[in-house]
Amino acid sequence: MANYRDKRPQRKQWQRQAPVLLDTSQRPLDIVEDPSSLPAVQIDTDFPHPNVFRKRLRNIPQEAKPGDLVSISHTDGRHLGYGYFNSTAGVALRFIRWGAEPPNDEFWDQLLKRAVSFRHDTLKIGESTTACRLIHAEGDFLPGIVVDRYNDVLSLEAYSLAMFQRAQSIAERLAAVCGTKHWIVKPSPKSETQEGFSAPVISSPDLPRTTTIHEYGTRFRINFNQGHKTGFFCDQRENRIKLAGYCEGKSVADICCYTGGFAIQAKKAGNAAEVTGVELDENPLQLAKSNANLNQAKVSFVQADAFAWMRDIVRNGRQFDVLALDPPKLIHSREEIEEGRRTHFDLNRLALQLVRPGGIMVTFTCAGLLTNEEFDKLVRSAARQAGPPVPGTESEENPRRQPREVQIFDRTGASSDHPVAGSCPESEYLRALWLRVL
Fold first, then answer.
1. I want to staple 158 with a disulfide (CB 3.0 to 4.6 A). Which of 147, 163, 285, 379 is the partner?
2. Residue 15 pLDDT > 50
3. How far is C-alpha 24 from the geometric centre of its chain's CA atoms?
4. Does residue 85 surpass a pLDDT of 70?
């Protein structure tokens, strides 16, 4: 008897191609296209999710090229909507609009104005900062791209080939909505392996090299040549000011401090007694020092590997009243989950040893593949091995340790200008646990 799989439509076998270097000197693609001649792609699912994996595609026409806008229908003949196609990517189809109407001028105007209005009119972010996220990929129903605003500059990072090809058009339309003067577009660091293309950074002709933004009265300098991703982590804005509220007169450690956000806010807004920032990479550390000087904030910055630095501090018996642990993304794919969990565990086990009894620790993960429950369990497990050395093992290089009791008193995530679409809950990537360490 034939297996039921034998009756399923045959999937087209895709061959991964070498990354293509895009010619950015050519005229960029407009985001409004003629719908009359679009390739038609069929999929075998109508689950309302913006991203469709390659295994779900059927009957791909030869004229469909990577980056194309395509019409999408179900294998049963129902028309579903429109999206961007890339046969070389794992996420081979990204919906841009559901329903019968193509993404026309009116659609784009409404989408961009709605995103800007949410930040300015609803969240009133302009009252606290001159930097925010304007477009949060799937969270704003525009998968494959994020856009941050820093004063008069729009900084775009494209995660998909189609969005990079159209990013300049998006930047120019968005600038007309929010009144900015400059823009810069960067491909995602993973664009070569995940989307099959490489491209240089492109920008408007008079883009300034740096700009200085304000966040709750504290200033941060953004360097568009050196900055990570779009240039600055707007997603931690609300967590930075929250942590500052616990810092008055306290000793503070900001581990994996990048450009010094938590450290500088702890000193400037929180009036901490002493602050130490630890970062391995030299370029962001230099910017962190510059940011501290900009605010006349006395912060001690250390260039060191977080593991080595924390082990030294543990051996020296030093502890802090308040500690922030904000490592870079440690899990990029399902193949990296186990290794990433172990790294998170080791970082938290060491960090918990550096907090004085009664002190506050906030620990983060930006690994979207690590669930809230898994992160909670990981931190609790780390606490069970973060107390004083077991008697008789004190002289060992890595002594066995007693449990450290913690109270989880809050859970937060990315700032409110990073919404999560109900149809794409896995895009909720930033998680924070706030602990009182006993």
1. 163
2. no
3. 25
4. yes
Task: Quickly tell me which residue has 């294998």 as its tokens.
Answer: 75
pLDDT, tens digit, for every residue of 262-279? 999 999 999 999 999 999
What's the CA gap between 179 and 147, in Å, rounded?
14
| Angle, CA 155 vertex, CA 432 and CA 147 arms, to 5° | 60
pLDDT at position 18 is 56
Q: Which three-class secondary structure state does DSSP give residue 417?
A: coil
**Per-residue 3-state assignment (H helix, E strand, C coil) for 123-166:** CCHHHCECEEEEEEHHHHCCCCEEEEEECCEEEEEECCHHHHHH
pLDDT exceeds 60 at position 160: yes
Six token digits for residue 128: 């606290």
Write down the CATH superfamily of domain 233-389+396-437: Vaccinia Virus protein VP39 (3.40.50.150)
* Domains 105-210 and 233-389+396-437 are alike in CATH topology: no
Beta strands in 180-259 (DSSP E): 182-187, 197-198, 202-203, 210-215, 218-223, 251-255
Of 325, 309, 274, 278, give the one whose Cα is nearest residue 435: 325
User: Parallel, antiparallel, or unpaired for β 182-187 and 202-203?
Assistant: antiparallel
What the block records as the tokens of 191 is 């664009």
Task: Report how far apart, in Å, the C-alpha atoms of 56 and of each of 28, 45, 166, 232 are.
Answer: 30, 7, 25, 36
Task: Examine the pLDDT at 78 and tell me if it is beyond 60.
Answer: yes
C-alpha distances in Å from residue 215, one per residue of 24, 239, 268, 300, 415: 34, 12, 11, 21, 13
Rounded CA separation 359/363 (Å): 13
Query: Which architecture characterizes domain 105-210 according to CATH?
Result: 2-Layer Sandwich (3.30)
Run of H or E residues at 409? strand 406-412
Nearest to 291 by CA among 299, 281, 303: 299
